[in-house]
What we know:
The protein is an all-alpha fold and about 70 residues long. The chain is built from two helices and no strands. It has helices at about 5-40, 45-60.
Amino acid sequence: xxxxxxSTFLKRQKEAARQQKQRxxxxxxxxxxxxxxxxxxxxxxVAGEELGLEEQSENENASGPLPGAADDGV
Length: 74
């Protein structure tokens, strides 16, 4: 019985997902270029940028020590 086939399958799935992301990214890039040429501003891009900034600020706040978690040295 082959034990390594599961990891090979997972690698293939991961690679397929990576390639799909690249295709999607290229398609979005082409669409932005067309929109820019036509003078259309994409509302999705503006909303995505705002969400990215909010997530980053939340992560920065979460990186500190938890309130009430004192180091007792025990």
